[in-house]
Amino acid sequence: MIHLEKIDSTNIWEIVDLKVFKSQKSFVAANWVSIVQAYGVRDSATVAFPFAIYNDKRPVGFLMIGFNEAAMYENWDDVEAPKSLVNNYSLWRLMIDKRYQKRGYGREAIKQALDFIRTWPCGKAEYCSLSYEPENEVARKLYRSLGFMENGEMDGDEIVAVLKL
User: Fold this and answer.
1) pTM of whole model > 0.70?
2) Who wins on pLDDT, 42 or 106?
3) 54 has which bridge partners?
4) pLDDT by residue (tens digit) across 134-152?
5) CA 159 to chain CA centroid, nearest Å
6) What is the predicted pLDDT for the residue at 42?
7) Beta-strand (E) ranges in the chain?
8) φ and ψ at 83, to 5 degrees?
9) Phi and psi dihedrals of 69, rounded to 5?
10) What are the respective helix, strand and coil percentages of the chain, to the nearest 5?
11) Which residues have a Cβ under 8 Å from the Cβ of 97 and sit 6 or more positions away?
12) DSSP three-state, residue 94
């Protein structure tokens, strides 16, 4: 059964060790990078919730939820945050280890992430947003099937899609 668990000292290394296929490396940051980003936004206006994705007791992926991710962009001179990241939630990262892909784990993890978001841990918001590389058709199809719709914004070179909460 798929479930999310907070990343802590008991599971961090098994999550860092998860990998995607070589052909997917340009689509998602390494898990250790995401965990460093989560730590780096502590004590700021951006909040990160890094989760391990488990199938029963086996780690199969990583997911990170953000809130007000736009505040992080204020430190960068040449990048403007998508408006959908202002005071909204985001599915900041999603990865399923190459050994466990195409089993529905990503879909179920997103549903559980949305359930978590709807507990409003940082307060109510209008949207959950995410972004993906234009070439990542698998991600596009998955996100659309869950109700995320492109809104015309870009996050760097990535397409932004939003879900009304």
Assistant:
1) yes
2) 106
3) 3, 59
4) 999 999 999 999 999 999 9
5) 14
6) 87
7) 2-6, 47-55, 58-67, 89-96, 127-132, 149-155, 158-164
8) -60, -30
9) -60, -25
10) 30, 30, 35
11) 18, 19, 20, 59, 60, 61
12) strand
Enter the DSSP assignment of 13: H
What is the token pair recorded at 134? 């234009």
How far apart, in whole angstroms, are the C-alpha atoms of residue 49 and residue 63? 8
> What confidence category does residue 79 fall into, taking pLDDT thresholds of 50, 70 and 90?
confident
- Say how many C-beta atoms besides its own lie within 10 A of residue 26's C-beta: 10
Over pLDDT 70: what percentage of the chain?
Answer: 99
Q: Is 163 left (phi over 0), alpha (psi -120 to 50) or beta?
A: beta
Could you tell me the domains of the chain?
A: 2-164 (3.40.630.30)
Residue 157 in 3-state DSSP?
Answer: coil
46-52: long-range contacts (C-beta < 8 A, 24 or more apart)?
Answer: 46/70, 46/71, 46/72, 47/121, 47/122, 48/92, 49/6, 49/116, 49/121, 50/6, 50/7, 50/93, 51/4, 51/5, 51/6, 51/7, 51/113, 52/4, 52/5, 52/6, 52/7, 52/11, 52/14, 52/15
Given a cut of 90, whether residue 17 has pLDDT beyond it is yes
